[in-house]
């Protein structure tokens, strides 16, 4: 069974006040976990907090490629997302930037996939432009809880594969 996700900050980092870090150990091989993050047919099944669904309009997983999708909240609200991939290093790392649009949240996400003997440790780091932007994302969008829930949904998705 997968371990629960944790949120932590790197105490030695000068960016601590601007970041959220989520880590989860998953009972799945690294290649499968990487595919779950990069194949639209997989992503739409688990991405986002509990109760959310997704419509993916474009997902071009390569440096400079776009990922445009709408997250449909359980309250009926739609959250449009426009993302540009910065780094794609299969199966080790993904880096992408969330471009602000209707939602004024901008951050860079780095996802590292570490092989742990047939299991995969996923570390997802969200780096916001300022500490106040991080706090706004936590207070307004509950990004801290949403990150944990998203990795929980990923674990459930992988268990069905």
Q: What does the model show?
A:
This protein is of the alpha+beta class. It has one domain: START domain (Alpha-D-Glucose-1,6-Bisphosphate, Chain A, domain 4), CATH 3.30.530. The protein is built from four helices and eight strands. It has an eight-stranded antiparallel sheet. A hairpin with a 4-residue loop joins strand 7 (107-115) and strand 8 (120-128). Helix 3 packs across helix 4 (143-159). The longest helix has 17 residues, at 143-159. The two termini are 14 Å apart. Residues 7-12 have low confidence and may be disordered.
Number of discrete domains: 1
Q: What's the end-to-end separation, in Å? A: 14 Å
CATH-derived topology: Alpha-D-Glucose-1,6-Bisphosphate, Chain A, domain 4
> CATH-wise, what's the superfamily?
START domain
Shape verdict: globular
Portion of residues within helices? 25-40%
CATH architecture: 2-Layer Sandwich
Q: What's the gyration radius in Å?
A: 15 Å
